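User: Assemble these into one structure.

Assistant: Restating your components, then the assembled model:
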Amino acid sequence: MPVATAPSQRARVRRAPSRAAYDRDAIDAILDEALVAHVGFAVDGQPYVIPTLHARAGETVYIHGSAASRTLRTLATSAPACLTVTLLDGIVLARSAFHHSMNYRSVVVLGEARPVDDPAEQLAALEQFTERLVPGRWGEVRPPSAQELKGTRVLAMGLDEASAKVRSGPPVDDEEDYASDAWAGVIPLALTSGAPVPDPRLDAGVAPSPCVQRWEPVARRAAR
Amino acid sequence: MPVATAPSQRARVRRAPSRAAYDRDAIDAILDEALVAHVGFAVDGQPYVIPTLHARAGETVYIHGSAASRTLRTLATSAPACLTVTLLDGIVLARSAFHHSMNYRSVVVLGEARPVDDPAEQLAALEQFTERLVPGRWGEVRPPSAQELKGTRVLAMGLDEASAKVRSGPPVDDEEDYASDAWAGVIPLALTSGAPVPDPRLDAGVAPSPCVQRWEPVARRAAR
């Protein structure tokens, strides 16, 4: 059942509040399906929005990157941050230009990013990045070296100030426009995967492992 | 030919600068293919990142929304802003966990949003929102009424402080890891469209118009 109450005033969805959801299941499902997040932070008053991978584990969403990255260095100072993911589900074609819209599912997480300094939590988060991307992959590849761990910064954001927003279904037109002879409806959109492309340096005859062969956005979702 | 020089110090790509591009063709192509942008702004020091549609026309990228929206109201005060779009092209599977990556194309636009007050520019921008989404659609639907125009705020950002970042191609592994027997390569990703779903209130027998029938991300690109 959707939770209709925002966890904080600033996490409340302002526009079209009927599309808002604040329950963890809705939020988790969107975060887990999205392959990329957009993280916002400010430097000298200028906002920056940077695409980055994210990985949720329980009540926490992790991001990571080079310890030298400005994004990571800025966020590691407990600067206020915002992490947003958006899934596009369709183009909504209404009978008026005004009511054209998108079907989408998005999550906005507000808060501060906590640097992950505990080596066990860092390694578990890195495993989660690989596993959430391609379940089963972590066991097939070389794990991080001490030097790689040292050069990688992991940050954690709590999900206590998260909100989801969802639009689905057909267009909603003004009543008088339903007499229009224009076609109206939805063009569905989905992120899909193609056949795996082997690295040119891979020995011929090395087949994709099962976790690669079976990868697709929906299977990935089901595997979680 | 890629332009290797950033238009400003703050628009310079910091991480992996070899992936950066600053030429308008590269920037325009990414902006035009992306269906959604993430806009960043700050309220009382808290950054917010909100998904929104965008539409480029020449040197300008437009966003729009309800005149009552906090995002639009904040940006209309010439607050510093950042508009980012990201296209996912593939999951890069390396022989080490560390070198896993994504193939992507992204654009970051820095600057201030200018409120569009000229009615002709506002209407042209709204036409561009519809036409860039589904080329040919504007002529099929009811144009905006005076009341709808009054309730819609259009903002414009210049592209003079824009940068693109692109990763493509196979994984790049540490030399000693190429002896690994793990499969390595890329799982291609693309946004794809399904068969149009008619509005339940549409008269049976009304077929999708040609612009709806032929819609697909790549055709949309080619049609521009």
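The mean pLDDT of chain B is 92.
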